[in-house]
User: Which sequence fits this backbone?
């Protein structure tokens, strides 16, 4: 993924200093070069600017500066994950559907409203092919890194699991493993793959 920084030398330099820790490529553009991206519908890049730009692609507007660096990286990561699903408003998570606009998760005719943090948590867990450690959630979904106490993340997940259990009678939607948290249907897929690999070998 590419992050296009529009007319913000300071922001580009700050992110460029920690580029080895980021999972995206940084590109700096000015008013002349921006035209190349304004009419591009390619979802492989995210345009970051201090004001809304009338373009066909995705634009992250930083209109409330200053902002903590970790908060900014979190916003970019979540935006990039959401970009994968721009062509649809619903993200399918096993037997559930998560509406990315309303942040409602549903199963059949039953619907549960989620907070932005809860929705982002599910999006991130669903995007991972394996269990996610609390430390990863601290950095990718929460505003903070290692200084955020782990029980804060765990308490939040506990409350979300409780809401899902009460609404859908599903106490195994998000499961805890020795390697972290995992959405249950992904565990089943992983077990099936392991079974097939063993039998093929």
Assistant:
């Amino acid at each position: 993924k590419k992050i296009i920084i529009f007319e913000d030398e300071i922001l580009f330099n700050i992110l460029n200093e920690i580029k080895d820790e980021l999972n995206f490529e940084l590109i700096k553009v000015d008013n002349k070069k921006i035209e190349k991206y304004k009419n591009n519908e390619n979802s492989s890049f995210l345009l970051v600017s201090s004001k809304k730009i009338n373009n066909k692609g995705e634009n992250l507007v930083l209109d409330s500066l200053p902002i903590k660096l970790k908060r900014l990286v979190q916003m970019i990561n979540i935006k990039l994950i959401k970009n994968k699903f721009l062509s649809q408003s619903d993200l399918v998570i096993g037997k559930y559907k998560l509406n990315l606009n309303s942040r409602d998760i549903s199963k059949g005719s039953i619907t549960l409203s989620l907070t932005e943090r809860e929705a982002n948590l599910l999006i991130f867990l669903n995007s991972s092919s394996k269990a996610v450690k609390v430390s990863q959630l601290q950095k990718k979904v929460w505003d903070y890194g290692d200084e955020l106490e782990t029980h804060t993340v765990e308490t939040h997940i506990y409350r979300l699991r409780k809401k899902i259990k009460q609404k859908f009678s599903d106490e195994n939607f998000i499961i805890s493993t020795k390697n972290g948290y995992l959405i249950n249907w992904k565990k089943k897929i992983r077990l099936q793959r392991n079974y097939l690999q063993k039998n093929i070998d």
In short: Confidence is low (pLDDT under 50) at residues 187-201.
